[in-house]
Structure to design on (116 residues):
């Protein structure tokens, strides 16, 4: 699996509108195309920081999404209502969900610590 992670911030005046827009776009994108999972997280206690996570089975599917109108719509909404702080591509192996990725990462970290 391969994922896209976007860190987004907003100011207080656009916070609610950005959150609603990200939520609506995440539902739309999860229903369309090859996207396996799309979630928006809010960082606590800094409630103006958001994390967008989206997952696909292959790099080709992600590349198709990056060239899509849906992705340009997402970037446009972020540009108008907030700031894109960072973007990165995350690769996962032997995992079918974000929680699975977390568990795989935890196992890898534990194994690395045991080797020391």
């Amino acid at each position: 699996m391969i994922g896209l992670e976007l860190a987004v911030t907003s100011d207080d005046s656009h916070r609610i509108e950005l959150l609603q827009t990200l939520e609506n776009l995440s539902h739309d994108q999860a229903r369309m195309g090859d996207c396996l999972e799309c979630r928006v997280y809010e960082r606590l206690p800094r409630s103006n920081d958001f994390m967008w996570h989206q997952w696909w089975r292959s790099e080709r599917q992600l590349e198709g999404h990056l060239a899509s109108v849906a992705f340009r719509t997402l970037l446009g909404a972020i540009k108008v209502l907030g700031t894109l702080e960072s973007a990165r591509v995350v690769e996962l192996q032997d995992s079918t969900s974000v929680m699975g990725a977390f568990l795989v990462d935890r196992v890898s970290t534990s194994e690395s610590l045991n080797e020391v």
Notes: Confidence is low (pLDDT under 50) at residues 107-116. Residues 7 and 85 are 5 Å apart (CA to CA). Strands lie at 2-9, 37-42, 49-56, 83-91. Residues 2-115 form a domain with the Alpha-Beta Plaits fold (CATH 3.30.70.100).
